[in-house]
# Entry
Amino acid sequence: MIPSYHDLDPCPTGCGASVLWTMTEHGRRMAVDARPDERGNQAVYRDGAGRWRSRSLDGAEARPADPWEATYRPHVATCPKRGSAQPSLPGLPAGRPRTRRRAPARRFPRWTIR
# Structure
C-alpha cells in the first residue's frame, strides 16, 4: 500500500525527503520512508479509522508481515542529516537521568481520629 501525497510530510531534520508518520504498537510516532522497501523492518498498514499504524518485524516473538501490510524502513535509518541534527559534545555524559516526579497534591486534608 503506497500512501497518497496528502499523507506525506517533509523530514523534520530538513533532509528534503518525504516521510509517512505512523503510530507504533506502543503509541509512539515513527517516521518511515515514503516508499515501501523489501529490506525494511516495519510492517505498515492503515486501520479502519484511516490512521497509519506500524509494528516491528524484528524480535523473537514478531510475526511476519500480513497480506494487508507493506514493509517500510524507518526514516531514522536512511536520513542523511540524522547525524548532524544532534551533534554530541566531547566530555559530556551520554544522557541525563530522569528527574523524579513529585507526588500529586492532596485535594482533601487527611482527617485523623484522636
